[in-house]
Amino acid sequence: EIVMTQSPGTLSVSPGERATLSCRASQSVSSKLVWYQQKPGQAPRLLIYGASTRATGIPDRFSGSGSGTEFTLTISSLQSEDFAVYYCQQYASWLTFGGGTKVDIK
Amino acid sequence: QLQLQESGPGLVKPSETLSLTCTVSGGSISSDNYHWGWIRQPPGKGLEWIGSIHYRGDTKYNPTLKSRATISVDTSKDQFSLNLSSVTAADTALYYCARGRYNEVGTTRFDFWGQGTLVTVSP
């Protein structure tokens, strides 16, 4: 099983600031990495796939990077609607998710 | 607009079988382009993929569930279903159904999700 580890567990950011979220895989997943956003009481929403490709309708303030075992989701200028929990997920070997990073208001 | 809706009992007794159905509307389940999957989320915790199915019947499962999960599809009703046997309290979770994209190996990502249904395992 490929274990996905996200850090930090919670990230406190002021609106308008940049947020950088990390995801590490226990072994290489190449670029087979997805990011989701989940708000309270809602289903996850697809943000990024293939490590860096934005899904349909996702604003360009969201960007993904990385390959192999180290990945980053960057939100360039946090908007009020971006405060949520973010999950990474790999698909190199079946599907496993990270534990999530909560982005809250500083 | 594609919609997915989970349905099924909200309470299941330990050792019994959890059964859920996902109804797809606004689109057809019989598309070569998609998988249809189940993902769960224990209260306050993270996400766990359970398994996925293609409308032709090809299935893939999370090996950690030790063959307790079975996913089936009914193309005449645009539905797919999950059976999870021998449940315990650890299976208490919000269960989501979702549409997946796939490659030659299996599902890669989920781009449309249902709202989820809470299933509690309790005597």
Which features does this protein show?
heterodimer, A: 106 residues, mainly beta, 7-stranded mixed beta sheet, B: 123 residues, 4-stranded antiparallel beta sheet, 53% strand, globular
Q: How would you characterize the overall build of this protein?
A:
The complex is a heterodimer of chains A (106) and B (123). With 106 residues, chain A is mainly beta. Helices cover 0% and strands 50% of the residues of chain A. Chain A has strands spanning 4-7, 10-13, 19-25, 33-38, 45-49, 53-54, 62-67, 70-75, 85-90, 96-97, 101-105. In chain A, strands 2, 4, 5, 6, 9, 10 and 11 form a 7-stranded mixed sheet that branches. In chain A, strands 1-3-8-7 form a 4-stranded antiparallel sheet, with no helix packed on it. In chain A, strand 4 (33-38) and strand 5 form a beta hairpin. Chain B is mostly beta strands and 123 residues long. Chain B contains no helices and 11 strands. In chain B, the strands form 2 sheets. In chain B, strands 2, 4, 5, 6, 9, 10 and 11 form a 7-stranded mixed sheet that branches. The model of chain B has no long low-confidence stretch (mean pLDDT 96). At the A-B interface, strand 5 and strand 10 of A face strand 9 and strand 10 of B.
